[in-house]
């Protein structure tokens, strides 16, 4: 009998072969259909460990993550252009097909952040904000209404498109700052931020991701919080995985693995104020938060996602 894991890998590889031969990854009926099928294939909870895949499947996964990143970039650019054509772009964010996912993810990350931070952050850096900086917009509009968001992207055209979306809003245009920089060239400025967000597709493989994490560990302020997006189970075919062991220089506070249409796992860590002791690393608990480990499957320590959805609906109605 063929096991579920083999069927999953076969399906993902079949979709990869179709996606990799597309002439363009810009939004179209064929592109949308294939990526929707890929996401639906990878969405259900799965015990698969992508580190145990054969080399051939590992290579396919690496290429697939890059293709997903390219397609996501085209999708965001497409909708940023559409939104930017409106007089008040922020009134039309719902036309982006995954906007509700960002509402859920924003509420989830805000809840995680507030349960692990002693004060409302004055300044947040978002690395890899792109042409459609929905995380910053959702957090700034709904949750952190006095915080300034500094959005970093290596692409000047992405920043130009993003800035256009908030210009018509006096409050957000004042609290959303855009920087065109490779984050590895940003040093002293990183000390200014209470919280640094690292987008899922900044660092497309483990080496790139770890180089960025090491850079942040070197230049972020002691005690500052790092929020990262990761992936779990079959969702790791769509996004890079960040392990606790990758976060050298940080105290990992917790990991949350959603099980609904919010694809990314959320990792929260705090830069050590001093060199960590062996005892604190081995303890396994920080307050009431469970530290992630190789055996952990799902750490539902915060709020169930059906509650996230309920709160999001109330926010939309208010």
TrEMBL record:
Name of the protein this chain belongs to: Nicotianamine synthase
GO molecular function: nicotianamine synthase activity
SUPFAM superfamilies tied to this protein: S-adenosyl-L-methionine-dependent methyltransferases (SSF53335)
GO biological process, one term: nicotianamine biosynthetic process
Domain of life the protein comes from: Eukaryota
EC number: 2.5.1.43
Function field: Synthesizes nicotianamine, a polyamine which serves as a sensor for the physiological iron status within the plant, and/or might be involved in the transport of iron.
Reactions catalysed according to its record: 3 S-adenosyl-L-methionine = nicotianamine + 3 S-methyl-5'-thioadenosine + 3 H(+)
Lineage: Eukaryota, Viridiplantae, Streptophyta, Embryophyta, Tracheophyta
Stated family: Belongs to the nicotianamine synthase (NAS)-like family.
UniProt KW keywords: S-adenosyl-L-methionine, Transferase
């Amino acid at each position: 009998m063929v096991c579920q894991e083999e069927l999953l890998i076969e399906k993902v590889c079949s979709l990869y072969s179709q996606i990799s031969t597309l002439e363009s990854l810009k939004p179209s009926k064929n592109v949308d259909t294939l990526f929707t099928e890929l996401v639906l294939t990878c969405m259900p909870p799965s015990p698969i460990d992508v580190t145990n895949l054969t080399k051939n499947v590992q290579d396919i996964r690496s290429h697939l993550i890059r293709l997903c990143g390219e397609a996501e970039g085209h999708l965001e650019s497409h909708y940023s252009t559409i939104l930017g054509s409106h007089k008040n772009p922020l009134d039309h964010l719902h036309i982006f097909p995954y906007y509700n996912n960002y509402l859920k993810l924003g509420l989830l990350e805000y809840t995680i952040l507030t349960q692990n931070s002693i004060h409302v952050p004055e300044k947040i850096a978002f690395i890899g904000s792109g042409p459609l900086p929905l995380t910053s917009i959702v957090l700034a509009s709904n949750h952190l209404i006095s915080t300034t968001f500094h959005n970093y992207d290596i692409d000047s055209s992405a920043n130009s498109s993003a800035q256009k979306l908030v210009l018509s809003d006096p409050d957000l245009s004042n609290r959303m700052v855009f920087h065109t920089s490779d984050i590895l060239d940003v040093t002293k400025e990183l000390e200014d931020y209470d919280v640094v967000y690292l987008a899922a597709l900044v660092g497309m493989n483990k080496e790139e991701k770890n180089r960025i994490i090491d850079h942040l560990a070197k230049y972020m302020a002691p005690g500052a919080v790092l929020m990262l997006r990761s992936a779990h189970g079959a969702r790791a075919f769509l996004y890079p995985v960040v392990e606790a062991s990758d976060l050298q220089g940080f105290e990992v506070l917790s990991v949350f693995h959603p099980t609904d249409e919010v694809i990314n796992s959320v990792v929260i860590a705090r830069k050590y104020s001093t060199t960590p002791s062996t005892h604190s690393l081995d303890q396994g608990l920080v307050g009431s938060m469970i530290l992630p480990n190789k055996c952990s499957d799902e750490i539902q320590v915060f709020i169930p996602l059906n509650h996230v959805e309920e709160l999001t609906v109330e926010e939309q109605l208010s």
